[in-house]
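Hi there, hope your week has been kind to you so far. Please have a think about how the structure follows from the sequence. I've dropped the whole record in just underneath, so have a look:

_____
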Amino acid sequence: MTAAALFERAPRVKPGSKKLPIKLALGRAALPTICRDLGYRRGAEIGVWRGAYSAAFMAANPRLELLCVDPWLSYPAWQDTKNSLQPDKQEAFMAAAYAQARARLAPLGCRIVRQFSVDAARDVPDRSLDFVYIDGNHVAAAVREDLEAWAPKVRRGGLVAGHDFRVFKHKPTIHVVEAVRAYTVDHGISPWYSLAADRTPSWLWVVR
């Protein structure tokens, strides 16, 4: 099975069309198994937090070589119920998340990289990954930087995907919808998809 055969259920339409993304009746919980069934062996998650989704990829495919990238640092646009914490407590909160991710993922053989996304991407050869899942800093500029840095790392026939394709009325610094739409238009990407079974969908496309 190829990624194209799995996802391309509609004719190619013009990038930027209102018909995009094409909604699939899947949630992101299905993606680790899909990647396994496609024979994917090398992937990366950008924005790991406590490691739960990385662990789901490993549970679906214990042979997966997974790169887990996250700085585990707060930044000005960090929007969370914890953003009222004082700086020293924010640092402790992030350190606790990092410790939990390490405890969860290190025994699974994941490669944990505590760096900012763009810095970590410099050490990954282009077209060397089967997939990347982007779930890091959600401000528009950061999403764009992650796409520019990591999409070239995925080989033809692989998947570029990410989380939080939704407008959040009470979180004005989450701009994933805006950034992903702009990137797909600028790079002529069509078709691309949303995993619409989730309240907060993921987005993805097959690299051509």
